[in-house]
Amino acid sequence: MWPMMDAESFKEAVHPLLKAYGFKKSNATWRKSQVESIAVFNVQKSPWGDGSFYVNLGTYFHALGDQLSPTENKCHVQVRLEIKDPSKAVQAAIEWFQARAELQSAKSFAESDAKKGLVFKELRQSLVA
């Protein structure tokens, strides 16, 4: 079990774990290119300056946009993790990304994801296409 940590300590702890899965870091965001999408893992510092942070995940689909390095708020599917243990957060993120790596898979999760996070209108519209 990890002790309570601030955003900087958390970022340092998750970096080697995400790197082992092929993610590349840019500031507080890690990205991994996949066949149909880009997986985005972001650590967002709290605006209150108390050291707290949020872990944001997103999947950006090439078929629905042309960004090469999207931020998590531009991803077509987004969720915020409540897990603050670095290894558990990375494992949960990897499972989440794997389940949503392909557009067809993301479509199957769209309804349940919309209840827990954010599903962009482009993905919702592609459900009827």
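Next protein, fold it too.
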Amino acid sequence: MNILIVEDNLAHQRITEYALKRSQVSFAVNVVHDGQEALDYLFRRNEYADVTKFPMPEIILLDLNLPKRDGREVLKVIKGDSSLKEIPVVIVSTSDREEDVHYAFETGAVAYISKSSGFDKFNEQIAGVAQYARAKS
């Protein structure tokens, strides 16, 4: 299973990767650090043109608050594109704002994980995402 993590905070990236490893699901991870990189990766532009090195993800873990292009915009582009819209997108954000959660689900996210929910709950939710992705593949 291929997972794309879109995260600009290195500490949050490492915690997410750690939680995924604990889920005991076999996966490969690619990481991009801003919204523009995420879209370049998904549309095979620039350094992400090599499909063997950068395979299409089977699930995307997307932060909302990103530099260059915001995660909300990235989600809207993904769900508006016929070649990408079937990829499950899980929002992983520090924001607990009701309007962010509502926007994410209204735009097509399959789950919303709050980074501020505490380490144990975060690990449990990420493990659930990994199990969900394995069941879908």
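About the second fold: The two ends are 7 Å apart (CA to CA).
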